[in-house]
Amino acid sequence: MRMNNKLGVFLLGLTALALLGAGMARAEDQLDAETKARIDKYEQGPATIDVSKYPQGIQDNYGTFSQKCAQCHKLSRPVNCDYALPDEWSRYVKRMMHKPGSGIDSADGKKIYEFLTYDSSVRKKAMLDDKLAKLSADDKAAAVAKIKEVHDKYDNK
Amino acid sequence: MSDELKSNLSQPSDAGPTAARSTMPIWIIVLTLLLLFFGAVYFDHHSGWFDKQVYAPYTSADQLALYQPKSGAAAAQARGRPAYEAACGVCHGSDGLGKLGQAPPLAGSEWVAKDVASLARIPLAGLNGPVQVAGKDWNLSMAPMGAGMSDADLAAVLTYIRESWGNKYGAVSTDEAKTARAAINGNAPSAADLARMTPGERGHAVYQKFGCAQCHGPDAKGGVPNPNAKTAEQIPSLIYVADGYTKDELINFIKRGERDIPRMNPAGPEPPHFMPQWGPIITDSELDDLAAYLLSLKPKGENLGF
């Protein structure tokens, strides 16, 4: 009986390894599928953020974010995606903003950027710190200054 | 009988023979697992996954003959099919019947029957505006999908179009494709000119060469109609790409294209224009220059404050 158990574990291990080997070999062919899966994963996450502890101005900006961004895509996409740096959000918001018919003017775009930058510095702090640590000293200092600028504008007001 | 034998015979046999048991050495297990792992990788790469196309691809000698190397027009047609599918088939269809609201048919099209120079002008320079094909009016725009092809590939695609789906208009030679290209490229900058230009200037030449202006406008300000596209039913402007993309992001987007354009009315028709996948068509150095040009378009002094 003991021998049977050992044989079972051994065979399971073999099967797992064989599948892993085949899977690894196929991974390179599935990049697009993985990118799509990544976006699907973001969109399956929560679509709302608890902003009750954020400053009132940021809560107002959350309203703009919810209203404007939901016109074209699920809110869960930006809420759960792997953007966290101010420059990443700046590019992303401007990219959306400049699409014809986006209905996002520069004032709205700035509110959305400030909300996402603030939210990332709180809710995605670990991811943000990790990304900051990988930047050059100059880029890191610039990013930290941009985050501080948003906090200075809204905190304690 | 010896004393020793007597002694042995007198001993009671109280136990049968036993086999010694020892644990299998761990290195054998690890080695076996590793061999199986690499075996699985090798199997995946080389086995063909037991597909009958791999192990028994032909059912007759006639079928085998179909796959033999061809010469002349037949070779050009065989070479043209994959190039056609990659560059033209998405809109004109694998069956050459076109797609309503997207691209006119090539099967039975009088344009395919025209002389080679007239036909070649379409993939080389693109086509924008009203055109009548097989008695129907079309008003669309097509990027010059053949501008980046070699003369041999262009000749092969044109041959495939002229000799497929019931068309019988004859093969196109590489020389004919070359002559047609030379006639169209009369104003294109020479290699010496290109060498003297800045990356942005070269990028502008690339923008013109590949007909980006057909959809995004001569000044890249967009505005070409794209019915039912979520982007206000128009093709987007490019003058603000510097705001939204790093150079790498922009190049990757151009390479990848965007096949599925979000619809303004989800129940409405598919927007006729989409961003082609330029990766296989524009070279890396041209893409680099094109990105430099596009990133330079942002109006000076404009600052959104974030």
- CATH domain class name of the largest domain in chain B: Mainly Alpha
Separate helix tally of chain B: 16
Q: What percentage of residues of chain B falls in helices of 4 or more residues? A: 40-55%
The ordered H/E elements of chain A are: HHHHHHHH
Give the CATH topology of the largest domain in chain B: Cytochrome Bc1 Complex, Chain D, domain 2
Oligomer: heterodimer
Q: What is the CATH architecture annotation of the largest domain in chain B? A: Orthogonal Bundle
Q: In a nutshell, what does this entry contain?
A:
Chain A has 157 residues and is mainly α. Helices cover 73% and strands 0% of the residues of chain A. Chain A is elongated, with a radius of gyration of 22 Å.
Helices, strands, pairings?
The complex is a heterodimer of chains A (157) and B (306).
Chain A: H1 2-27, H2 31-44, H3 56-69, H4 76-80, H5 86-97, H6 106-122, H7 125-133, H8 137-154
Chain B: H1 3-10, H2 26-46, H3 52-55, H4 61-66, H5 72-87, H6 89-92, H7 110-113, H8 116-125, E1 127-133, E2 136-142, H9 151-162, H10 174-184, H11 191-196, H12 199-209, H13 212-216, H14 241-244, H15 247-256, H16 284-295
Antiparallel strand pairs in B: 1-2
Helix pairs in contact in B: 5-9, 8-10, 9-10, 12-16, 15-16
What are the key terms here?
heterodimer, A: 157 residues, mainly alpha, 2 domains, 8 helices, 0% strand, elongated, B: 306 residues, Cytochrome Bc1 Complex, Chain D, domain 2, two-stranded antiparallel sheet, 16 helices, 2 strands
Walkthrough of the structure:
The complex is a heterodimer of chains A (157) and B (306). By secondary structure, chain A is an all-alpha fold. Chain A has two domains: 1-27; 31-154, no CATH class. Chain A contains eight helices and no strands. Chain A has helices at residues 2-27, 31-44, 56-69, 76-80, 86-97, 106-122, 125-133, 137-154. Chain A is elongated, with a radius of gyration of 22 Å. Chain B has 306 residues and is mostly helical. In chain B, a hairpin with a 2-residue loop joins strand 1 (127-133) and strand 2. Chain B is extended. The N and C termini of chain B lie far apart (111 Å). Classes of the chains: A mainly alpha (157), B mainly alpha (306).
